[in-house]
Amino acid sequence: MLVLAIFPLNTWAYSKYIIPGGNTVGIEVNSKGVLIVGLYDVEGDSNKEFKIGDRIIRINNHEVDTIDRMIEVINSESSNNNFIFEVYRDNDIKKITTNLSKDDNGVLKTGLYVKDQINGIGTLTYIDPNTRIFGALGHEIVDKNTASKFEIKDGKIYEAAVDSIKKSTDQEAGEKNAEYDINADIGNVEKNTKAGIFGQVNEISDDERIEVSATKEIHTGKATIRTVISDEQVEEFSINIIKIDPNSKTKNILFAIDDERLLKSTGGIVQGMSGSPIIQDNKIIGAVTHVIVDDVTKGYGIFITNMLEEGER
What we know:
With 313 residues, the chain is mainly β. The protein has helices at 67-76, 260-266, 304-312; strands at 17-20, 24-39, 55-59, 62-63, 83-89, 92-98, 101-102, 108-109, 112-127, 133-136, 142-143, 148-149, 152-166, 174-193, 196-201, 210-212, 221-228, 234-244, 253-257, 270-271, 277-280, 283-291, 298-303.
């Protein structure tokens, strides 16, 4: 009898040479359903069964994917004031039946604070010239009200320009301030994951390509990051890699900024720098992901191969 041993084999299609980012991008992502981010008092406690973090996906069997659509459905179904909300909670769908209260003007009140979009800025990490897949941020987008990953339906990234920087100080990370043009979208966001956001760009540029480093080649010592501190100009700044952790999913590279010009401009790592590519020995090795608040000159990065693999999933 012939016995075959079958082992799973992961093969990744990302390119050996990719386009490094470093440019600041505007980010807009839309939620899957309407996210409940808070509750307010209403007569009759009609909101008592809802929880912060619930995502409303249907009302009275009508699909709901935006706040405008939610308002439209509630108004169209208001005659009998009998509502069945379907919400996504803890990987399951829960039905909540309620009668909404009315204010003095007869307007129905849900008792819910909701959102359907998050926008901000970050840094583009790479573009794969063969597949048009891009990766940015190096970490997931989290809703600050629920402290959980923002489940996205879709989104876009846009060209952006840095106009000022609030410097990082002891115990407090600063931030880039940038403006982006909603008429100048670069591509579509398709996934929000622990390794970053991913999607496809509209077109491939003729920008330089850089070799992808194998994780075994990454070492402590000198490296650089590509990022923007003014307008749209991508520049390289020196860092020192202190420690490599191949076992972490996201915090693979511990580094310290030692570039005096960058420290003078930013005080250390700032919000909006997430996704900045890390370069070592003329190869791309990772991306900036987190600042260490106790010492804002230090931070973590994710291996570029972790991002590329996630982008291909």
